[in-house]
Write a structure and sequence with these properties.
This protein is mainly α and 110 residues long. It has helices at residues 3-23, 29-53, 72-108. It is elongated and about 75 Å long.
């Protein structure tokens, strides 16, 4: 990875680092939800600017320094989607296995 790509990834994850500070502390659900919403808005704005607005600027523009390559605009959401669907699938699978075990234990118990 080149330095530009590393620097842009670091700036993209600053809101997540800020959010991680709230996880270890006793904060209200409202504060945590507000921080999570702020993080989501910042990341959505960054991604929108990256994927929709940068193609209209010339390749030698200084704006491109703050964003990774355009190929990553497809790879990252695809990776997040696959990981998210995988996590949901595993969660549902664990619930089904637990439900089956509980129902078999109830049937087998006198």
């Amino acid at each position: 990875m080149n330095r530009t790509l590393v620097r842009s990834f670091h700036t993209m994850f600053y809101p997540l680092i800020f959010l991680a500070c709230f996880v270890n502390r006793n904060v209200s659900d409202r504060s945590f939800g507000g921080a999570l919403l702020l993080c989501t808005v910042i990341l959505f704005t960054y991604f929108t600017a990256w994927s929709l607005f940068t193609p209209f600027f010339p390749a030698d523009s200084q704006l491109h320094v703050y964003f990774p390559g355009r190929l990553w605009a497809i790879r990252l959401p695809s990776l997040i989607l696959v990981l998210g669907l995988g996590i949901v699938g595993v969660f549902i699978g664990v619930l089904v296995v637990k439900e089956t075990d509980q129902s078999q234990n109830q049937v087998n118990s006198p």
